[in-house]
Structures are given as C-alpha cells and as structure tokens.
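Example 3.2
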Amino acid sequence: MTNSFKISKIFILLSTSDSLLILSAVSFWISIKRSKSSIFQNLYTFPLYQYSFVYIKRFWKNLNVLLIYWITMSFIKLLLPLSKSKKRNLNKLKKYLEINDFKEVKKLLKLGKIGIAFSSLKISDKIIKDESFPVINLALEEKDLTNKITVWNDVVEQQVREKKYKEFSVDAEKKIRYFIAPHIVGLEEVKEAAMLQLFAKDKVHLLLLGDPSTGKTDVLRSVNEFAPISSFGLGSGISAAGLTAAIKGKEVIRGLLPLADKGICCVDELNLMKLRDRGSLLNAMEKGFITYDKGNKHKKFDARINLLATANPKGDRFVGKTPSTWLKQIPFDPALLSRFHIVFFIRRPGHKEFINIAKKIVSERNKNLEINDSLFIRDYIEFSQLIDVAFNEKLKKQIVDFAAKLKKDEKKFLVEISPRIIVGIMRFAKASARLELRNLVEQKDLDRVFNLLEKSLYKKNK
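Structure, written as tokens:
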C-alpha cells in the first residue's frame, strides 16, 4: 500500500477541514524527533511530512480542492447510517413534524449541524403528570438555521402542551378552583365564580361585597395571577389618571383599565374609589373603552374588561339580619351595582363556622403552587380562549324559567333582577364549557351557573 493511499484513507477518516494541518504538525514533529540533523536538512526526509507539505501548498493555491473535499465529506456523512441513539431520538421527533421538515432534520443531524436532547414542561404532579419531549439543539451558530430550529421546537412544544391541556381539562374545574385563594377556607361559590370569569370571552363583571378579613382580596390576587391579561389596583389609591391614562409629551402611560383590555381588571375596595373617577369605570364596564380629554389632547383607549371587584359595606361591616337592613349599607348607587352580573354578599363566619374553618386549616396539606404550575394554568386559560362555544337551543327555555323564578322573588334580594342577569347566565355557562375545552354548553354548565346565582342571591336570606 503506497503512502499516498494511506494518507488518503486518513483524510477520509478524519473528515474535517483541519485534518491536513493536523497531519502536517504530527509528521513534522516526528521528523524532528527522529533526525539528528537540523530541521531544514530533514524537511523532506520524512515521506508523510513531505506529502502533507506539498498537499497543503497546493491546497491553498487552489480553493476548489476545499470545495471538492467539503462536498465529498458531506456526501459520505449522508451515506453513513446514524448511530442507534441518534436514530432512536430522531424517531421520537417524527410524530411532531411534517414529513419534509423531518427529512431536513435528519439530513442536518447526519451532517452534525444539530443534536437532539430532551426537555419537559417542568410541571408538578399537583397539576398533571409531566412528559419529556425532544428538543433540537444547534451545534454551530447559523442565523438561518437558528430560526428554523426555533420554529421546529415551538411546533413540538405546542403539540405537547395541547396534549397536556386535553388531559388537564378532565380535572380542570376541581384543580383550578383548588388553587384560587388556596389558604382561604370556605367561599367555595365565590372561588367557582371567579374561576369561570377567567374563562369568559364576553364581558362578565363580578362583585364581592362583604365584611373585611373574609378572604375577598385573596380571591382577587389569585385571579390576577392566573389571568393571561390582568391589572390590579386599590380603589383608595387609584386616581383618574391611574384608572385611565396619562400623557407626558409623546409618552402615553396607560392606566388600570386599558392595561386590562381583553382581560380582567381587579379592583380591591372599590367603595373607596372617588365618585368622580367612577364614570370611566362605568364606561369601560358598559362600552369597552375610555377617553382621555385634557387640553388639546383627545384620545380613545380600548378597555374591554371583565371587572372583578371587592368592596366593604358602609360602616365597614354588615350589621343586622334582614335584607332591608343590609340594603341601606350598600356603598354604591344602583347605576354601578346594576352593572355586575353576579354580586356575592359575604359575612364573617359565626362561631360554629369559625370552628369548622379552624379544623380544616390545621388538617389540610400544603397548597403552595410552583411557578411553572401557575404558568401552565395561565397558558391553559389563554389556550381556552381560542374555543368558540355555542349554546344548546334546548337549554334556553330553562334560562327563561329560571329568570321568571328569580323575578318572582326579586323583593327578597339586594340586587335587581334585570336582563343583565340573564346575559350573565349565558356568558358564565359558556365559560363553564370553555373551562373543559368544550365548544357546546351542556346541562351541567347551566346547573353550575344556576347554583352560583342561587347561592349569591338566596344564601343570606334563609
């Protein structure tokens, strides 16, 4: 076997553009070690070095050699089979990608330009069992290739997420409600209504009116955490500019309402908001926008909000035992109160209720939610907004009958039974279906909403 043939074989085995330089360095070092003469006298005495020196000289003179070499090695790599581990990882990626994308990934993997690793959603078993999925990594930085890999990885992760969303939807109602104000014992109907508000596409407004230190604010904070779009503020600390907008030169600072556009605006202690500032709030609740008029500047901002608010009664807590007594303690005029689709009246627990709450507190396990679990729920809610829910025509008569029943008992309630209540029933029922990723309202959705309304209206009147 000639030296030329041996060296050619070495070139193919090394299969890198640096192989010639490596061979030259090694052969030059060997020639020095083995020779007692000077370096220059032995420059051509070692055949391997002599060949590599001549090859490199010709290589730099003619760049076509480099091109031919690169094409040859790429062709050889494409012909060689993948290792078992690479083939196994590649097959796990196959079900997520289109056939043409998969072929391109396979080609890039053979050329050594990418690798395949594994990742997961990093969610805990409190939510759902996690699952690993393949992720494509870039071996060498290439801008065009980076963009492609980003798209492929996004496609894979989104499919994994959608699979997990479907699995989670089976127990979504129980698990999400469990983590709304998790350290507050009781208020189950309030938590359920707040949960449904998270899944409402059409505007629904919810008011928690009651005694202080009953957990109302905790419900607001949980909703603010889970809502994909939300804002949170205190009624006592919100100015007109903080509620709407402020303009300083060319800079526009959006307030609480436009920040929550297409989301949930959470206002704690709404009763402490100044009367002159409530006009913008009413406009956002009813029309879905607010205006800024100051000097020669006139602007309109979208504020298509779902309002979740808390408030304390006049005198800070409800006193008395009859609806007529409580009615005098409501801190709002009928115009604002009538904008809400559901109003919960919340009293501090009595002695027996307090003892039961204390027992539950000491017996319950840890309810803290990991950050990735919280983000998963938020993403699940955002995904649900893509679903358009239809209303089953057969169920509409039940709504009419239920509304007639409520209207008959209207004098027993602290709120008026208006057409807005009927609209709220339909919107909350659709939210209930969306909670479970369904596109049609079912009987159980209607039963859930009827129960919430009855609890909010009748509970304190029994």
